[in-house]
Design goal:
Elements: E1 15-17, E2 25-26, E3 40-42, E4 47-51, E5 64-66, E6 71-74, E7 88-90, E8 95-98, E9 112-114, E10 119-122, E11 136-138, E12 143-147, E13 158-160, E14 165-168, E15 182-184, E16 189-195, E17 207-209, E18 214-218, E19 232-234, E20 241-244, E21 255-257, E22 262-266, E23 276-278, E24 285-286, E25 297-299, E26 304-307, E27 321-323, E28 328-332, E29 346-348, E30 353-357, E31 370-372, E32 377-380, E33 394-396, E34 401-402, E35 418-420, E36 427-429, E37 444-446, E38 451-455, H1 458-463, E39 489-493, E40 496-500, E41 509-511, E42 516-520, E43 533-535, E44 540-542, E45 557-559, E46 566-567, E47 581-583, E48 588-592, E49 612-614, H2 631-639, H3 644-647, E50 665-666
Parallel strand pairs: 1-3, 2-4, 3-5, 4-6, 5-7, 6-8, 7-9, 8-10, 9-11, 10-12, 11-13, 12-14, 13-15, 14-16, 15-17, 16-18, 17-19, 19-21, 20-22, 21-23, 23-25, 24-26, 25-27, 26-28, 27-29, 28-30, 29-31, 30-32, 31-33, 32-34, 33-35, 35-37, 36-38, 37-41, 38-42, 41-43, 42-44, 43-45, 45-47, 46-48, ...
Antiparallel strand pairs: 39-40, 40-50
């Protein structure tokens, strides 16, 4: 129940507070200025709103002022400057804006200033650098601009100025703050060259985050004893180059992130507590550094490493994420890769030059969620031991030399959502499954560029429940993966590879292109009404384009090109208002091209190679006999039970990888 908090308040009250996370609402009344004896005002975690009134002139006894986690707006009132006995000032998590008052003097006792998560702008006022008792300063997640000033006292233990628009260099005075334990300046526009020797006095620093700036770093020859207590060090997304050999936190460092720099060499030092090491997207060359035995997260993707994977990597028995993708690594995979850690959930070896077979054994009760071997030279069969990977969500074996039949037994994996087998030597008919409802969770399947034959697998298409009746309005939209690692995949649209650096849980696609499938497209394709992309191109499919396609209301990409389809393009396809990519070229279609809606946006390349088609956008005009039948007549015949087996010959489903609303899409580029 929401309550009004300010009613009759005694003037001699010394403490005024509400229970944290209460439901009080309303605004602060001007009568607050009458509480001249009050020492603490705590309204944290309510629904108060409006502007903070300028009522603090007479509240000189106030020691603690906490208005955080409300909906206050407007500016900080200038009368705040009269609270000379203030010890704690907290306005975080509101919608306050404008500049912080600059005419403030005499805050000799102020120790905690927390103004994060607001809309403050302008420069940081000079008085915040001159507080003799200041212990914590948090101005993060605002819009502050300008340079960071020089701090006059060394009492500070915590500084967070991250997620602003600050520029210039890091001030010299910060490196004199001997009591500092946490320094966060990430996501600003800071630049300049940092010498590691500058950190000599920061012996108490445990947390240093300078990521997402434009900083470079030079290593001092006497830097081995620096930052002896550091636990987390994040220098990612900067301009660091050359060799990185900063020996810090030998016994304490557990998190080191150097990703997205231009580092060409890295010395693996004997950190005894290392848990997370992220070196992805640099210029590292030479052999693969062997991660320490304590490592849980190791990413060195998007570099230029060469050589083989040493079996010593399997000594990291606590490994949870291992990403070696996008390098020049080669040789055969160590047999132990599948069974050296019960905690391993992600193994990503994509885009290397590995050959031989995929490891054939996996630990019982393993934690594998993602297995990505795409774009190597692996051969042999799909490992049958994958059947015990009950947590598996993503299996990507695309672009290898695997010679096998369709692994129907994977249909028993209860959580499998993404299956990519494209560009291998898979062959034969997909056929039927002995499993009653196979692939119940599968929503992305890519079998393109193989030698599959026979009719499209109706049984499997009917089982793809994850592509049916998705209620996006009542589901939480999130990306595949977790807070530690999010999955990505390559998608082919109009012959171009597009990288989905994140995969939305609402994205669904089928790609069966470039195989030897024949027969008609089954009408059960209409059951997959949450499908985003469908590609059945470059096969030997015959028959008409079924009216069931009109049910695919979420479809964004449809490619039926280079088949032997005949008949007219159903006018009902104009109801697919999300359709952005259409390719019906190189078939035997005839008649009038439907007009209206998305069809007005498609060019000649969507229809070429069908001499019998006419109308916009083709130059071939239609005669009277080619004008389409009224859609309602066709609809009536369809609903009255007309035998479409004679004229449509339907059955079959397909597989595409198309566009997905809200997904981040990059053309062969790096994720941000």
């Amino acid at each position: 129940m929401r309550l009004s908090f300010f009613e009759t308040i005694p003037k001699k009250l010394e403490f005024l507070g509400s229970y944290t996370n209460s439901q009080f609402l309303g605004s602060i009344p001007a009568s607050l200025e009458n509480l001249t004896q009050i020492t603490s005002l705590n309204l944290n975690g309510n629904h108060f709103s409006g502007k903070i009134p300028n009522v603090f002139y007479n509240l000189r006894n106030l020691i603690s002022l906490d208005l955080s986690r409300n909906n206050f707006s407007g500016h900080i009132p200038p009368s705040i400057g009269n609270l000379t006995n203030l010890y704690e000032l907290e306005f975080s998590d509101n919608q306050l804006e404008g500049a912080i008052p600059s005419s403030v003097y005499g805050f000799s006792s102020l120790s905690f200033v927390r103004l994060q998560y607001n809309l403050f702008n302008g420069t940081i006022p000079s008085w915040l650098y001159t507080l003799p008792s200041l212990v914590e300063l948090d101005l993060s997640h605002n819009k502050f601009t300008g340079h960071i000033g020089e701090f006059q006292f060394d009492s500070l233990e915590f500084i967070d100025l991250s997620m602003n628009e600050l520029n210039g260099s890091i001030p010299t005075s910060i490196f004199e703050l001997v009591n500092l334990s946490s320094l966060k300046l990430f996501s600003n526009n800071l630049g300049g060259v940092l010498e590691t020797s500058k950190f000599e006095k920061l012996i108490n620093l445990t947390d240093l985050d300078l990521s997402n700036n434009m900083l470079s770093l030079t290593m001092s020859v006497h830097s081995n004893s620096l930052l002896p207590n550091i636990q987390t060090l994040d220098l990612s997304h900067n301009n660091i180059s050359g060799m990185f050999s900063w020996n810090v936190g030998k016994d304490t460092l557990s998190y080191l992130n150097l990703s997205y720099n231009s580092i060409s060499g890295f010395e693996m030092l004997p950190w005894s507590s290392m848990s997370t090491l992220d070196l992805n997207s640099n210029l590292l060359q030479g052999p693969l550094p062997t991660p320490l035995n304590s490592t849980f997260f190791f990413s060195i993707s998007h570099n230029k490493l060469s050589g083989e994977i040493s079996p010593l990597i399997c000594k990291a028995s606590s490994m949870g994420v291992l990403d070696l993708s996008h390098n020049n690594l080669g040789g055969m995979l160590p047999h132990c890769l599948g069974n050296f850690s019960n905690d391993l959930s992600v193994l990503n070896l994509r885009r290397n030059q590995f050959h031989g077979i995929i490891p054939q054994t996996f630990l019982k009760g393993n934690s594998f969620r993602t297995l990505d071997f795409n774009s190597n030279q692996l051969e042999g069969l799909v490992p049958r031991y994958l059947i015990i990977c009950k947590e598996l969500e993503v299996l990507n074996l695309g672009n290898n030399k695997i010679n096998d039949t369709f692994p129907h037994w994977l249909g028993a994996l209860p959580k499998l959502q993404v299956l990519v087998l494209r560009s291998n030597h898979f062959h034969g008919q997909i056929g039927f499954s002995k499993i009653k409802s196979p692939f119940m969770s599968l929503r992305i399947i890519d079998l393109a560029h193989n030698d599959f034959e026979g009719e499209l697998p109706e049984m499997y298409l009917r089982s793809l429940k994850a592509t049916m009746n998705i209620d996006e309005g009542n589901m939480t939209r999130k990306y595949m993966g977790d807070d530690i690692y999010q999955d990505s995949m390559m998608v082919t649209i109009k012959g171009s590879e597009i990288e989905f650096v994140k995969i939305l849980n609402t994205f669904t696609a089928i790609d069966f292109s470039s195989n030897k499938f024949q027969g008609v497209i089954p009408e059960c394709i209409g059951n997959l009404n949450s499908l985003r992309g469908l590609n059945l191109s470059h096969n030997y499919l015959t028959g008409y384009i079924s009216l069931s396609f009109k049910i695919l209301k979420m479809l964004e990409s449809l490619d039926l090109s280079s088949n032997k389809l005949s008949g007219r393009i159903p006018q009902e396809l104009t109801s697919l208002t999300f359709l952005e990519v259409l390719n019906l070229s190189q078939n035997h279609l005839i008649g009038f091209i439907p007009q209206g809606s998305q069809f007005q946006t498609f060019g000649n390349d969507s229809y070429y190679g069908n001499p019998g088609l006419c109308g916009f956008p083709l130059s071939n005009r239609c005669t009277i006999d080619e004008i389409p039948y009224p859609s309602q007549e066709i609809e009536a015949k369809f609903e009255s039970g007309f035998d479409w087996k004679i004229t449509l010959m339907g059955y079959g489903c397909g597989l595409v990888i198309g566009l997905s609303l809200g997904c981040l899409i990059f053309l062969s580029g790096k994720p941000e």
